[in-house]
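seq as requested:
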Amino acid sequence: MEKVTMTVKEAAVFLGVSKDLLYKEVRCGKIPHTRLGATILFRRDTLTAWLEQQEKQSVS
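struct tokens:
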């Protein structure tokens, strides 16, 4: 079974940003995530869709 969620560290690598920037975006509600207790998790497919949406908005 393939893992579908990523930790902050894994998501930061996936997005090519620092963990600090990712935490900031989470606090501001700018990036899709979920919390499981104190753990912040990101779904790979949701981040991919979010990235695609961000790209479309940047050229319109």
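The two ends are 38 Å apart (CA to CA).
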